[in-house]
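Figure 2 data, in text form.
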Amino acid sequence: MTRDGGNPAGKAFVPGAAENEIALLHAIIDAVSAGPDVEPLAAAVARLITEATATDVCFVHVLDDAERSLSLAGATPPFDAAVGQVRLSLGEGVTGWVAQHGRPAVIVEHKERDPRYVRIPALRGSDFVSMASVPMAGDAAGLVGVLNVHTVVRREFTEADIRLLTVIGSLVAGAMHSARLHRRLVAREHAQERFTEQVITAQETERRRLAGDIHDGISQRLVSLAYHLDAAQRALPDRPVDASEQVRLARGLADLSMDEARAAIGGLRPPVLDDLGLAGGLTSLARSLPHLPVSVDVAEIRLPEARELALYRIAQEALQNVVKHSGAAHARLTFAVAGTTARLDIVDDGCGFDAAEKSDGYGMHSMAERADLVGGTLTVRSRPGEGTAVSVTVPVPTDAGDAP
């Protein structure tokens, strides 16, 4: 016996007593407050519905982002293990039919005889006799999904039963819609982060290639040129003044070109990161500053390549600012990783400045941009006469620790 949510006879899910309705409303509020994620919300809704309707099991099927199929997002035990593993196209099975037509469906017995019914082994439909299925929809959210309840014994679902299920579905539809939007936003943010990582990685790969080409090609030829010029100068008969002067000038140009090539290599990709890693690179950077003692406390932890480069460049810019502008007698550089967050701090005891008035100076825009590219945050704290503290935090994968 099957119906399309007409006027089946039988008892209602719950009595219409006011205290029961208030309790149900509180339970719905608790369910929609379960959190911004789809699955916890769907699980809370499934538990609520079975308790409110005195049914044996509830399945919450949620429309996917493309609105072309439904996936099982929540279920009461033991079927919660099937969450995420059941997917139905619109129009497929009773659930798909309800989603496609926007109307409830009731099967009192003999489900297999209903042309809409599709057997789903993971949900063990043969264990249950009767079912009711209603669309989960709201005026603002539209169709969000489908709610299904099943009973082991034969049950005549009444009009009040379907109305209660429909009301619950409409009340949670808005929260479920928000949860779907949150899931979509999180997925988009992750995709943006992955894209940024790929862009930075591609840039660094190309920079490393260019640095290698300069080092292996131009630099080596300049070294050879310098050797030949030295040999030519030594071989000049009686060292004629004019020829010797020309060789000397050529040797000076070769040295200048070598310095420029080394600077270009360092600008494209700091070789110290490949040789010593981030901790060694930061230590070497701090030790290279003239006339400025820098205390260093860095963790020997490797990060993904893009994050190491960003932190190194930020430290480089911040320390250059200390040397150029602060007049500091001492600075401190620390780097540590706690959980999934890496933190770099550069603090000096210099003259300081009004951070509100000079927020665009001191290379802060460049440092903030580098931090932002890897999903990090830059903070600069300073006041006149009280020194400056530059802090940057960046997220790191949980498996970072051995290799970039």
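Caption note: The first strand starts at residue 2 and ends at 3.
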